[in-house]
Amino acid sequence: MTDPQATSLFPQDKLSLLLIRSLLQLPPDATVKLEHKKDSKPPYSYIGLIAMAILSSPERKMLLSEIYTWIAMEYSYFRNRGSGWRNSVRHNLSLNDCFVKVDRAANGKGHYWTIHPANLADFLKGDYRRRQAQWKIKSHQHAQMPCWNPLAMQYLLNQQIQQNSMMEMWHKQIANNQPVDLNSHNHVDSNSDRINV
């Protein structure tokens, strides 16, 4: 007999069902019902709860107030916990790349939240682990270049400018059928600034 305060978990838990069937050596088609008490803390992170709320909407977007309502309706644990959990929901929406603020509500109060397309497939499979969106990873790869000394950067820039001007001069000499002495332009000025990087 099942506990009247228990509720079935979501279909996203198919992987859990497969694992349980395997561990208990049950046939693949055996009926297994995962349950948890509604008053107990849900086995999901805030990212998971928010994702499930948004995915429950036919439009796959929700207002913040709708996310609060969905979580409180699905898990009575949050109904008796004051407002601290709401702060956690707002924090997770704002700071995680997997959630995106989209168009404004029709009444002009608040924005809708949706799931970033890079995370949608994982969330649909029930994988709610925190991941940085792929587009952000790629954009950060450029920002992770070594931190250069500004003087070294100026030196390198000057070297590039000097090299470009020499190349331009050589091209002009070649175009005018003038002889080009590559060694005469490849000297180091003894008065130039030397920088230890």
What descriptive keywords fit this protein?
3-stranded antiparallel β-sheet; Fork_head_dom; 7 helices; two-stranded antiparallel sheet; elongated; TF_fork_head_CS_1; mainly alpha; 197 residues; Arc Repressor Mutant, subunit A; disordered C terminus; single chain
In short:
Keywords: DNA-binding, Nucleus. The chain has helices at 14-23, 46-56, 64-74, 84-95, 117-124, 134-143, 150-175; strands spanning 6-8, 35-37, 61-63, 99-104, 111-115. It is mainly α and 197 residues long.
Structural account:
The chain is mostly helical. 45% of the residues lie in helices and 10% in strands. It folds into two domains: 38-133, Winged helix-like DNA-binding domain superfamily/Winged helix DNA-binding domain (Arc Repressor Mutant, subunit A); 146-197, no CATH class. The protein has seven helices and five strands. The protein has a three-stranded antiparallel β-sheet with strand order 3-5-4. Helix 2 (46-56) packs across helix 3. Residues 1-12 and 185-197 have low confidence and may be disordered. Residues 178-197 are annotated as: Disordered. Pfam families: Forkhead. Residues 184-197 have a biased composition (Basic and acidic residues).
